[in-house]
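RETRY 2/3 - previous attempt timed out on the joint model. Re-submitting the same 944-residue input unchanged.
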Amino acid sequence: MALARWSGMPALGDVPVQIDVDPYMDIDAYDAEGDLMVLNLGPQHPSTHGVFRVKLYLDGEVCIKAVPYLGYLHRGVEKLCEKLTYANVIPIVDKNDYVAPMTSEWGLVAGFEKLIGVEPTPRAKVMRTILGELQRCASHLLWIGTFTLDMGGAIGGGATVFMHTFREREAILDVFAELTGCRFHYNHFTVGGQRHDVPAGWGAMVKAVCDLLEARTEEYESYLTDNTVFKARTVGVGVIDRQLCLEHGLGGPIGRASGVDFDLRRDGDDYGAYGTVDWKVHTHTDGDCYARYLVRLNELRTSIAIVRQLIDGIPEGPICSLKQVKLPGAVKPKAKASMAYAAIETPRGELGTWVMANSERKLMPHPYRCKLRPPSLHAVSLLPYICPGNNVSDIVVTLGSLDPIMGEVDR
Amino acid sequence: MSSLWSALETGLRNLLRPTTTEPLPWKGTVSKAERFRSTFALVHTPPDSDEERERLRNIPTRLIRGEEKRREDLGMSEDEWANFGEEACIGCRMCEKICPSDIISMEPTGRVESPVKLDRKGGPAKRQYVSQFTLDLNACIVCELCIQVCPEDAIVMLKVQEPPGYSREALVLTIDKLYDNEALDQNYWANGSILIDMQDPKKGET
Amino acid sequence: MSLLGAGILGFIAVNVAMLLAGWGVWYERKFAGRMQSRPGPTEVGPIGLLQPIADILKLMQKEDTVPRDADAGLFHLAPPLTVLVTLAVMAVTPFGPGLVVADLEVGLLFALAIGSVIVLPVWMAGWASNNKYALLGAMRSAAQGVAYEVPLLLAAAVPVIYAGSFRISDIVEAQAGYHWYVGWPPGPGLVAFCLFFLCSLAEANRIPFDIPEAESELVAGVSIEYSGMKFGLFYVAEYLHTIIASLLAALLFLGGWEGPGSDQAPWLGTVWLLAKTLGLFGFIFWARWTFMRYRSDQLMRLCWVVFVPTGLALVASSAVLVWLGVV
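RETRY 2/3 succeeded.
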């Protein structure tokens, strides 16, 4: 049973609202000052980052309990992974983390490769690293845009930053279109390597994009980092402490902003060319929305630096280490009764793929079971812990700073 | 205060930059990429030498969608007839099987004697044709896998900038529409051989 | 001014204000578009100039929905009332030397009093909509509207103290000779102008103070259940309020209708007044499309902790300056 006690002037914002944060609290046992209002931050809302519903119990404007409802975007992807083969399920998982499809594909393909025991070629490894880092830039740019949109509104300053970041993101998407043909949802990864080779002039294009991004990131920094209004909305808001991050298994930018020094690119299996490049993991200790913003902005810069170091030195050779036999069920796992887990660092955190091969006498060309571990699910599961005690405005900003992608959460 | 001014100044700087949007559909292109994925086409295999062309000139019929047609039925001139090869699609159903969205369906004719193709002994070879081929673009996720697996390079991906249709019915590509599309964009980028060669693990080795 | 003259002037003024509000939408969309690397409206008419007409026609032909358990009387009454109350302020503002509909001795007091009534229709709309988002927006709007009245009045008191009269024409004439209160006497005038400007922004629910209609949280806040022309009226009322706030600021601080050539040709004075109003209007857009919004409690803190003491200090210092005979 929890009581909210106010001392000081709530209207001035210095409300030390002492609410015992208990996500499992029985709301009927709560003793409110007035009536409790139930507000649905419903599936149709400009700031819920996809179809997502949070039921907020409000006492005035302060949230007492928050109940998230997931599943509005569930499409049965893991079931599809059982029906489709290793070769043709990859365009389906593009649509999980639909904002960073390259890393979504990479996560799945890494799992399959670990199961089958195939190594990508050196050229493919370097290409994957470049594409993953460019995708990280694109995803963080989109995040900055939508974050300011949450604070400034579709009619207002947020929209300006949003449009600017999308303009830069288009440059990155043009680079991807030159390589694969699609601006979005590429179906570029395959078990053993890549499906498209680097065209002529791609390196110069990527370098031009890196220069553009660096210049524009300086602009975003000057626009936002010291902006009084931005800081007033984000500093001290939505604080997630380190212990909570560890309990929920959060490692991406959210964890790093709370002091969890963990990055799969450095600490995980050696899955890309990250060991050959000089780069740095950014952490922060505050754990508020501002810290998450700083971590992501710095990650943007680091990604650009990694791409610059790799783009001139892509090793020659084939891009795929498995012959694509022209049969749908071509890729058959050689290992028996095996299961594998592989995880990569997407812009949201650890994307894990656990895949189990069908190990009966007749080896099947599709997995027996494929479980995807989306990082956004763990981020969204924080909401019942960090919403209570905050205003509706702060909840919206915090939800934005967690960067959830519902396609990945619901699959 | 200065931070607020720097934000205002950034806005002003962007005001003075040129716009980056394209006023489609009046001007501009959907995608300038060389490998842009748009709609599909089924292709014919053209003759590859002058002797072949002369031989084809003298063959009176072709099998179109499994039916015999003469030059007069199709209204072609002699030169057009000489360049008109056979339909490449053999109805092997590879594309149908690999499609993640299950949008391809076809009706093969069964193996029949081809008026054009010769077997090793010089007699008419037997091959399969398709009489119906439907590709439902409403559900296509543009993954290029059907292109990749085609053993005959029969289905190719075009780079047209216009949308393939404006209604649900128009987006269901029948076999006639697919063969009509062949004329739309002659320098398509993606067909099976190109993709498979690109992904060859022995590429670059002598 | 005779009753007929006042009527005609009022009619012209209301029409001009509504036209300015309508094409203010066009200007804002073009300006915002260019700031965001896109052209804004280009299709309807040359450079999109007929876009406001297209918008109005579109809004007029929409279905007028009333939520099931809404208070229908208040629901229907709120949008036109917002527009009417906003327009009523123009009864006391002069548009040129001698061109005022009602030259009240307490003109400025009347204008600010009517301006404070605008809170009521917004509150009505929020309550009558039977929607929690609208209610939240209405509560925030009422709190903000009422709170920001205080520094607004204190800032508006500075030209009153300098000129010694509440009649707006007197205030403008006291600034003749380019002694505009924004710059002369140096000090309180500039601060008072900034304060007046910011408080007008807060009254008009403009970014950075537009939390009552914060789209990202409250999905259009107070006007969430309104469709069609009623929603259009809220929109128009917001623009009108902004124009009228700019007009008042131009009259009180920027010398009103004074400009090169305005002594000889009075119509040129009206043109100058219009130019100053539109300049401030343009700056409001620039600020709107640049900044994010403050949170509700931060807004209130800003008002009570920063603006009100500044206003009190301004009143005191301007009174001292008058007593010293500087003005």
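Chain B has a mean pLDDT of 84. Closing ticket.
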